[in-house]
Amino acid sequence: MLAFLALTLALIGSAVANPITGRYLLWSLWRSAIADTVARTCGSHASAESVAVMEKHFRENKVEEVDKKFHIKVYFHVISEDTTAAGGNIPDSQIHDQIKVLNADYASTGVVWTLAGTDRTVNADWYNHADPGSLQQTEMKNALHKGRACDLNVYTAGSITSASGQSLLGYATFPFYYASNPKDDGVVILGSSLPGGNAVPFDLGRTLTHEAGHWVGLYHTFQNGCSAPGDSVDDTPYEASATFGCPTGRDTCPAPGLDPIRKSILYYVWARFGSDRFLEDNFMDYTDDSCMTNFTPGQAKRLSQQITTYRHL
């Protein structure tokens, strides 16, 4: 504890002497010390085998993107265990705020999201067991799914658990799979992750931003670890593993480029003297909502191609 206090005092002194460098170092110390107790979890990690199948089909059938905006309708399906807000009955205001977050986050990609409708279903079984591959999520989607391949269906739940028993913030389907199972297409997220929810530090709406990223064809930035082709996007540096919290200057692979997370003072050194790859606080990693701010141009290009190829817009 004494060592921690001494380091803190030293960094405060550094912040006074050099406000730019010191501020970054002090923020990093505070964040790593107190704020990494909760980790983002997503059920949309694709296996190497499934990625090989998807990428082969994509290469053989790719429709090159055109310079245009993609207008996507969003159908919100609010699942609750009763009619109260505490029981999952999310108010319209939070749903509208979520659409605003989506549009702000995707502004650089050419994707525009429009709320097309909201329905509400009281079903405690669906609310508490909308897990990937479960009977409950299949029943829920078969009963409620709306629209076509180009329409996003969002289902909110109170509890989502992986097959291994891990609690999840959400999961999504990839565009490739729509043709084989249209009713399954969409995103399932914790209702508490919407803006104003209580899933701190995942309460700013970035869970849907992240899962919608999978829905438009993006992988996690740590897909394939340090091995080619990574996440199949050229300007996201390879990343050995998911990043949690809000760290700075993380570099987990020998290939050029810091991990695609929050910029630190090291970013500016690297950008000046090292790799010219884009180093972003990337929406497709596992950092906290407040640290997610960007898609790269390469991700924007890929999602445009995926939307054009598989979602027919």
Protein model, in words:
The chain has 313 residues and is of the alpha/beta class. It has nine helices and five strands; from the N terminus they run H-H-H-E-H-E-H-H-E-E-E-H-H-H. The chain has helices at residues 2-17, 19-34, 48-61, 92-105, 124-128, 135-144, 206-215, 265-273, 297-310, and strands at residues 70-80, 111-122, 152-157, 170-172, 187-190. Strands 2-1-3-5-4 form a five-stranded mixed sheet. Strand 1 (70-80), helix 4 and strand 2 (111-122) form a beta-alpha-beta unit. The radius of gyration is 20 Å and the shape is globular.
Task: Give the gist of this structure.
The chain has 313 residues and is of the alpha/beta class.
What's the SSE blueprint?
Layout: H1 2-17, H2 19-34, H3 48-61, E1 70-80, H4 92-105, E2 111-122, H5 124-128, H6 135-144, E3 152-157, E4 170-172, E5 187-190, H7 206-215, H8 265-273, H9 297-310
Parallel strand pairs: 1-2, 1-3, 3-5
Antiparallel strand pairs: 4-5
